[in-house]
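Hi V.,

You were right to ask for the full record rather than a summary. Here it is.
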Amino acid sequence: MGRGLVGNPIEAALSRAAPHESRPWPASQAQPVDVLRLDDVTIAYDRHPVVHHISGAFEGGSLTALVGPNGAGKSTLLKAIAGLLPVTAGAIRFGIDRGAVAYLPQVVDVDRSFPLRVVDVVDFGHWRKVGALRRLSGEDRAVSVAAIASVGLAGLEHQPIGKLSVGQFQRVLFARLMVQEAALILLDEPFNAIDQKTAADLMNVVRDWQTEGRTVVAALHDLEQVRRDFPDALLMARELVAWGPARQTLSDENLERARHLAASWTDPAAAICAR
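Predicted structure:
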């Protein structure tokens, strides 16, 4: 039998959700090709809006880069979609089951001091399927082991996570997402602070997800990577600047507008909170 999933601390850090802030859109307005819609979404910290009136939809199977200057609200928007932050105004509406959403925060947001092994972390991807009181089956564990191998960590299943490099740990978190089998995957700077080989391998995983019909939204800062690897982009500077095919969205004119908006920000407290 596999290890139980009762009271694991890292699951709280990686998979918390507040579904009361996100609700399906009315059936009369449903668009089967859209898995997520933002309706005039505004998010504020201490009454300081850091995301302003963003509207639009993500189609099923799309691969979208979320880009913008530092302080643009990218991480804030992802956290709100994941259910970790409340929406101040507007609504986040899902065309899929809310439990089919997976969120990966930035590496620096994850505490690796917990005495867990690689396979333990990947096993947490089964959490929503098996529940808190059931143990993993042998089949579930086999899926975890296969996911670990698929990200290039075969043989490290029992390695303590505290002994992994940053790149290795990011591979572990991607394996955990594989096990979760989410329809919508949210990634916050997934290639930050990792080596080029790991970044390339994990980008291949992202492409595989898109091929399987999953929807991926990733906050990124490398515009060349966005142009090279992501068909679509959402450019924001607290408000929406442009959203569509990546090469059109990242035009010189749109990037200049984003820089101009960033230069106009005068509320430093909100700038610290927003990313």
